[in-house]
Amino acid sequence: MSQSAKTSPRAAAASDSPESAAGSKAAAQRLKMRRELAAAAMELFATKGYEATTVDEIAAAAGVARRTFFRHFRSKEEAIFPDHDDTLTRAEAVLDVAPAHEHPLDTVCRGIKEVMKMYAASPAVSVERYRLTREVPALREREIASVARYERLFTRYLLAHFDETEPHDGNDDPLLAEVAASAVVTAHNHVLRRWLRSGGQGDVEAQLDHAFAIVRKTFGTGIGAGRGLTAAPAPAAAPAAAVRAQDEVLVAVARTDAPLEEVMRTIEEALRNT
C-alpha cells in the first residue's frame, strides 16, 4: 500500500474518538432528515405539481417546522437532491487517498462511481426524480448545477497533476486533463440517463465500466505520457462538450442519445480540426 493510502495512528485514533463518533451520528441524522424532506417534496411535486407546492407544505408533510426545512435546503427545488453534498464529499475523499502509483484518470473514474452508487442505491426514487427534472425547468437547472460541481472537482484534480504554468511545445497534458475530466462526466451522465430511461433496469456498473474503458482508450494514453504514466484498464466518465485551448473555446455537439463511441469520436475530430 502506498504511503498516501495509509492511515496514521493519530488519524486512526481521531476517527475512533467520541467527538468523531458524535459527528458521524449527527451527519447521519442530518442526511436522514434531508432524505425525508426530499421524499415529501417529490410526493407533493408528483401529486400537486411543482409550482403549486409550497415549502410550508413540504415541511408539514415531513412533520417538521418551516425553519427546519431551511436548515437543510435553501429552496424547494434543492430539496429533491438530498445526497449530492454527501456524495461530493465521498468522491473528493476517493481523490484524497488515491495511491501514488495510480494514474490520475483512473482515480477520477473511481471517484465518479460514488455518484452512480448514489443513484443506484434507490432506483425507483432516481427514476421518479429524473422524470420530474425532465418536466420542471427549475429542477433541471438545479441538476445541471450539481453536475458542474463534480466536473470542477475532477478537472481540478487532473490539472493539479500537470504543470499548467510552464507551457512548452508538445505539452498537451493541461488540455488533455481538462478534456478528459469533462469526458469522464459525460460518459457517466450518458450511462446514467440511459439507465434512468430504462426504468433503472440492467447492470449499470458494468455499463459504466465499459464507458470508462472508452474514455481511457481515447485520453488515457495521452495524459501523462511524457511522465511514463499509463492508464490501467479502469473506468472514466465525462460529458465533454466544451474544451478550452488557451484563450479559445471549442464546442463539440452530439445527440444526447448518441452512442458513447460516437460522442468520443466527435470530440476527437473537433480537437484534430483546431
Write up this protein:
By secondary structure, the chain is mainly α. It has helices at 9-15, 18-48, 55-62, 66-72, 84-96, 104-120, 123-135, 137-160, 173-197, 204-220, 260-272, and strands spanning 242-245, 248-251. A two-stranded antiparallel ribbon has the order 1-2. A hairpin with a 2-residue loop joins strand 1 and strand 2. Helix 9 (173-197) packs antiparallel against helix 10 (204-220). The longest helix is centred in the N-terminal third of the chain and has 31 residues, at 18-48. The radius of gyration is 20 Å and the shape is globular. It starts with 8 loop residues before the first helix and ends with a helix. 35% of the residues are buried.
Order of helices and strands: HHHHHHHHHHEEH
Oligomer: single chain
What fraction strand?
under 5%
Average pLDDT score: 77
Low-confidence stretches: 1-14, 225-249
Largest sheet strand order: 1-2
The biggest beta sheet is recorded as: 2 strands, antiparallel
Q: How many strands in all?
A: 2
What is the number of helices?
11
Backbone structural class: mainly alpha
Rounded Rg: 20 Å
Task: Calculate the terminal CA-CA distance, rounded to whole Å.
Answer: 42 Å
Cα shape: globular
Percent range of helical residues: 55-70%
